Every structure is written in structure tokens, then in C-alpha cells.
Amino acid sequence: MAPRWAVGALLTMTFATGLVDAVSYLRLGHVFVANMTGNLVFLGFSLAGAYQLPVVAPIVAMTAFVLGAFFGGQLSRFLGGRPRFWLGCAFACQTAGLTLTALLLGTGVLRPDGRIVLVIIALLGGCCGLQNATVRLLAPRDLTTTVLTQTLTGLTAESALGAGIGKKPHRKVGSVLAMFAGAATGGLLLQITPAGVVGLAAVLVGSVACVFALGPEPDEPTV
């Protein structure tokens, strides 16, 4: 059974994902940094040329995401023998990337409406790629923290009215609510400061890093 603290930590990561995607989609030119399916679809739409959709930004986001995921895989390869240290290190690296982004936005070095917006997209995309790879390797089926398509499918298809084989539906519902709440909170806070939204995400992910680093050393995937 998954420890409650681990489930709570991953739901916190899901909330942080909603915050970050709110910044990227609403302020960085309608591009996702955590949802690569959306970017790939947007890129396909952009080939039509009539919808004035961005081309470079989705490519940058996907490239950064892949590099972040590769880095996450490397961390797992070399540190996976000590799960507590591996998870703490991975989420600490993500925290550092989010903190750097928030500082650059807050000091005006990077502007969400400037020409170097692609730098922000790359930083956030890399952070989300690292998160996605780490959580995937942690192996929770229903707490992916970034993409909820399979979560919604499992919640309905495996429910008592569906196949009747679903377990722990509250975790799936929690994931959906956490993502929704994060996106809504991010959209509201964006009216004040984008840097503050990314900074809040950094604080949350940093807290999760501490939880996993200081928690028990699992012999197998925590969730």
C-alpha cells in the first residue's frame, strides 16, 4: 500500500504542474511545458499556416522536455540504488530550475512577452521533463502528476459502473482536482505576477524533495 505521505507529495506535484502550465499557456504564447500531446497537436495545426499558431515554441518545449526526461533517466540509472537520495536529488534539481526561472522573471532579465521567451519555455519544459521521467520511473499508475488522460480513463472505465476492477478511485479523483486547482490558482495569480506563480511551484516541489529525501528508504517503488 502506498504511504499517505507519498500520495500527498505526488498530488502536490500535480498541483504544481497546473501552476506551471497556466504560466506557459496563458503567458508564453499558448504552449504547454508539461503536456507534450497538446504541443504536438498544436504543431500539426500550425502546418496549415492559417491559424497563426506558434511553430518554434512547441518545438523548443518538446526538445527541452525530452532533454529533461533524459537527465531524469540518468539520475535514476546512477542513483536509483538509493531511492530516497535519487528522488530527493531529482526533485531538488527541478526546484533549482523553477527557482532560477522565477528569479529571472522577477528581476526582469526574462520577460514573458519579450523575444527571449523561448528561454523561459526551455527552462520550464526541462523541469517538467525531469519530473515526468522521475515519477514514471517511480512507477505510480494513477499519479502521473502531468498527464491525466489515462487517469480519467481509469477512473471511468475501471469504475464500479464500468469494468469494476478499479482500485483507489480517490487517488484518481485527487489527481484531477489537484491539476484543476493548480491551473485555476495559476490563472488567478498570473494577474499579479508570473514570477510569483513559478516561485510558488518551486516552493511546492522543494517541499516534495524534502519529503522524499527525509522519508523512509523504499526497497521498491514507493507508490
Automatic annotation (TrEMBL):
Species: Streptomyces scopuliridis RB72
Residue stretches in coiled coil: none
The organism's place on the tree of life at top rank: Bacteria
Transmembrane segments: 51-73, 85-110, 116-135, 173-190, 196-215
Keywords annotated in UniProt: Membrane, Transmembrane, Transmembrane helix
Lineage summary: Bacteria, Bacillati, Actinomycetota, Actinomycetes, Kitasatosporales
InterPro entries: DUF1275 (IPR010699)
Name of the protein in its database record: DUF1275 family protein
